[in-house]
Amino acid sequence: MSDSGDSDIAWTLYKDRPEWKDITPVSEDDGPNPVVVIAHSEKFEDVYDYFRAVLKKNEKSERVLQLTKDAVELNPANYTVWQYRRDLLKALGTDLRSELDYVESVIKQSPKNYQVWHHRRVLVEWLQDPTLELELTGDALLQDPKNYHAWQHRQWAIKTFGLFSKEMAFVDNLITEDVRNNSAWNQRYFVVNNHLGWSDLNVQREICYAMEKIKFVKNNESAWNYLRGVLLHDKRGLSGNAVVTSFCEDLYKNKCRSPYLLAFIIDICDEAIKKGELSCFHNPDRAIELCTALATKYDKIRSKYWNYISEKFKIAKNEQEEKEKQQENGDKMDD
Amino acid sequence: MSHEERIELAHRQHVKYFMRFLNILPSSLSSHDTTRVTIAYFSVCGLDVLGSISSINLELRQRIVDWIYQLQVHPNKESGDMSSCGFQGSSTINIDLGAANSHYRCGHLAMTYTGLCILLTLGDDLSRINRKALVEGVKALQTDEGNFSATLSGCESDMRFVYCAACISYILDDWSGFNIEKATEYIIKSINYDFGIAQCPELESHGGTTFCALATLALTKQLDKLSTEQVEGLKRWLLFRQVDGFNGRPNKSVDTCYSFWVGASLKILDILHMTNYGNNRKYVYETQDCVVGGFSKWPDTCTDPMHTYLGLAGLSLIGENGLLEIVPTLNITNRAFEHLKTIHQKWATES
């Protein structure tokens, strides 16, 4: 927020206010030769000169509460002013509900400011009342569905006060609106992980949900990452779930060459090799072939990475052939 | 290739750009009032990356050093308490306070970290810092969860300040204020289902916080606490941030600063060479202002010192001509880091 002091015609400086006559302002001591000097407006300097003066006196009064409002308006990132304001609220026994309204209005003006969200959180902790938090963060996410501060506050409120009941519907709406909203996918994981739980049934349902969304937009990193995340909770892993593996093969057969699909099949191959469960679809040769396709055609920007992954499979393949040879030799010896 | 040859570093303009920020700033930047030290950090370290630290003459150098030292919060004169110690970000609350409210004058981890970097970059010998007090100031800010608050004066705690605390402890060569085990536990808990790392457990993976976490693990020599699966997953997640430049989260816009945050993370994992330098370089140059200097997050938007510094640091990581080498963990030049090593040696012989 910029300093709007200059255009404020009706503004009276604190030094010109009779009710502040008893206070001697304390100007900033920036040393004899400061650097990175900000040419603050007269209003800014005046407000902060008085803030320093009352801080020094440790004055706790209504007029100081008002002064902190002016100081915050000029610089909402000043954490000392916010902290002093909280101490004032406590000392004066101010109605915290009106403070909630106030901080909401500041959040609306500065939705990406750490200090305001922290202030909000402390107030909610004091009141032990989170009833307005879902709406507040919902509004902020309407403006910017990926606002990290809003998501952080929302997760905190939901987890602290157990507000999970309508969260899945909220998330579903956001994903429907923008299937690429990674924050919303993350929140979906958060809800299942903390509230619904990873029962077999839920795992299957979430797998189906992710697959539906991938069918809709195939080249969507968020949905693929979610699918992989859900499968962390499937005992059968990436390679053992036939619904998932055939879903991938169908996409592949239908000419989908999204790097996320190919990467996923490569990972299935990797797991199958480690488990010793090779098949015609999932084996080192297939993985190497897909790595080559990614490196040379479908994901050229990461060609060096795919070559590196390919090398790993080549080593695994050699090891396996080595093993088979030894096995054969062993068998011959037995004969 | 012909296009790549055309893009050039507006070296002279960037030097001027940083010199302007070291001097005086317009009132429109009043909301940066409490974080002026970070602006000084971007400017001083930016000049260093440009190989132009000598643009800061002796007189200015002394001014900057004295100004930083003036922001150091010393132990409480009466009680000797050191929990408020650190550097402030500006002189806004640089006043003597009584016993009842002395805690309002306190250091801030991001300012202590960047303040120390400025001193190192300017060749100061750190002889005027109170090492013990700064360590105690760090110690006072670690939470039960293992992460750190920025300041005693009412503040959130998250991954950013874990990183700042790790850098401070590394620079001071004293880890007694930093519980490595707890911090590592916090970092590992913040690894997400997509293997990126978030600001706190269960939040969305983010390029900036992933850097903070990885650099901390590197500085504390705890990278081996990650499983192979976690390391490989993290490599994949980081490499997929590249579009032409890098984004900070899946499906978000590319932004110049992630050429550093993600680039440095990849460098720490020793796989930056697997990215496409040409595309990365081209994107960063699209955000360069050749006329007045500076870089912005997106093409044709406003430049700022942070994106200018991080744009240059990102270019330095991929070996851009005319730029000094960066140490990815501490985010200072190798030149400044060598100076730190001589200070460490001196401290070691003194103790």
What's this, in brief?
Chain B: Its EC number is 2.5.1.59. Chain A has 335 residues and is an all-alpha fold.
Please describe what this structure looks like:
The complex is a heterodimer of chains A (335) and B (351). With 335 residues, chain A is mainly α. Helices cover 67% and strands 1% of the residues of chain A. Chain A has a domain of 80 residues. Chain A is elongated and about 110 Å long. Chain A starts with 36 loop residues before the first strand and ends with a helix. In chain B, a hairpin with a 4-residue loop joins strand 6 and strand 7. Chain B is 48% helix and 4% strand. A two-stranded antiparallel ribbon of chain B has the order 2-3. A two-stranded antiparallel ribbon of chain B has the order 4-5. Chain B has a two-stranded antiparallel sheet with strand order 6-7. The mean pLDDT of chain B is 96. The interface between A and B is large, with 73 and 71 residues.
Helical fraction of chain B equals: 40-55%
Please report the number of helical segments of chain A: 15
Give the spatial strand order of the biggest sheet of chain B: 2-3
Q: What are the secondary-structure elements of chain B, in order, as H or E? A: HHEHHEEHHEEHHHHHHHEEH
Largest interface: A-B, 73 and 71 residues
Percentage beta strand of chain A: under 5%
Which word captures the global form of chain A?
elongated
Family (chain A): Belongs to the protein prenyltransferase subunit alpha family.
Enzyme class (chain A): transferase
Cofactor (chain A): Mg(2+)
Keywords (chain A): Magnesium, Prenyltransferase, Repeat, Transferase
